[in-house]
Amino acid sequence: MKKLNWLKVWWLPVCLVAGCSTHSDEPNRENFTVAVSNFLDEHGDMCIGKVKWPIDITKDEARQRTANSLQLPVMEKIGLVRKQQISDSTMRYTLSDEGKKYYLHKPLPSMAANGTVTMHDGDVCYGKLHVDKIIGWEPPHEVNGSERTVITYTYMIDPAPWTKDSDVQRVFPVVAMIVRSGGTLQLKQVVVLTKDGWKGEIGFI
């Protein structure tokens, strides 16, 4: 009995110092904060959706005021692209040396109108998200043999300096909204329980 009592006294400080169990599978705020934070470290890059360069703008596109025809001249104004007239009807825009600093060469997802997720080799990015705080989560449930849930959280962002330009904010309204809404806008993230704990999953809610 004395030996058992000694073991109990010895075990308590060891647990306090080293931790008896991480309980990384528990659906709690601490574990979900770690899961979303790790996911954003890898996938939290916010980009403008211009993945292939150069980009050509025709006179017809300019008359129709397409997104590229409005956005690329602003990107030229702030020094991210340069233009070249390649024909009577077409202007070509390429990334400048400054613009190349913001082109991230890594697999990045985008979603089509039908909900299909496509991976791209890179994109022009304007900031990276970090977890601000976990707001809540849905009750975990099993889907295709895996336990998962959806976490709601607020974020902080480190924006590129050029996102402050008023013309950039005008032609890239989503960029402006994401940058100004740090700490208030609520985002959602799917997490799945794995043998190593909760992990974020690429996808769109």
Automatic annotation (TrEMBL):
Report the superkingdom from the record.
Answer: Bacteria
Q: What is this protein called?
A: Lipoprotein
Q: Which organism is it from?
A: Paraburkholderia humisilvae
